[in-house]
Amino acid sequence: MKVVKELSACGGKLIKLSHDSISTKTRMNVNVYLPKQYYAQDFPRDRRIPTVVYLSGLTCTPDNASEKAFWQFQADKYGFAMVFPDTSPRGDKVANDPEGSWDFGQGAGFYVNATQDPYAPHYQMYDYVHKELPQTLDAHFNGNGVAKLDFQDDVAITGHSMGGFGAICGYLKGYAERKYKSCSAFAPIVNPSNVPWGQKAFGGYLGDERTQWQAYDPCALIKNVKHVNDDKILIHVGDADPFLEEHLKPELLLEAVKATSWEDHVQVKKVHGFDHSYYFVSTFVPEHAEFHAKNLGLI
Description:
CATH superfamily: Alpha/Beta hydrolase fold, catalytic domain
Order of helices and strands: EEEHEEHHEHEEHEHHHEHHEH
Keywords: Cytoplasm, Hydrolase, Serine esterase
Strand order of the largest sheet: 1-2-3-6-5-8
Function: Serine hydrolase involved in the detoxification of formaldehyde.
Largest sheet: 6 strands, mixed
InterPro entries: AB_hydrolase_fold, Esterase-like, S-formylglutathione_hydrol
Strand content: 15-25%
Family: Belongs to the esterase D family.
Number of strands: 11
Structural class: alpha/beta
């Protein structure tokens, strides 16, 4: 990994990194926020600092949430690190949407492993986010004598829009082995198989066979994942979100969990007057941070 830049922020530092990815076969960028506890002289060196992974939405880079969501204040408050991956592979050799639209291709990888050409060689975002990146970060940050960071065990996941979908999908697919301690989402695409954004992405990356889509669709996954303990999925969405009725449809996830072990364990909070922007996300980051801090044992 190459450190591109270190920026002091709040009580810690935002580290901008890049590395060659085995999964995507491209150079990938990722931002990591190290909270003030990482640099505290009295922090117990036998303890690991847990991590919250934030998956961004369409067109975003690792910088959007780093600059606009204000997670850093919360990371310092509770003592967790933040990981902000990119939303897709990038580069001149990486296939893009031939129509040049913003909701497919570069900047819109949808966190799946593509099976269709010309996207399959590079768009392996599920493996990148959930398998390769945690190992790569662990190797980079935990090879010295300072405080240790936990990228593989005490980890929570959240995301916005396309990233909210990616967070719920990854949480449910890794639920049996407790890959993530908790999951939340801001305005997620909960049923991509049945909305335009998801249908375009799944069709392009996974092909026309809809049975392949079910392996990533939260509304299909949650019916086959047995809920345990008191785990909850926390979701916020604004009632003034312009994408609410066509692309997000959070009510479909609530319908999907009826008569399953997840019934009453998915909480959708529809908040009045909020849209799809980072004004919305940043407003409710403190509630999501507290939610994850409790599940990570920090409260």
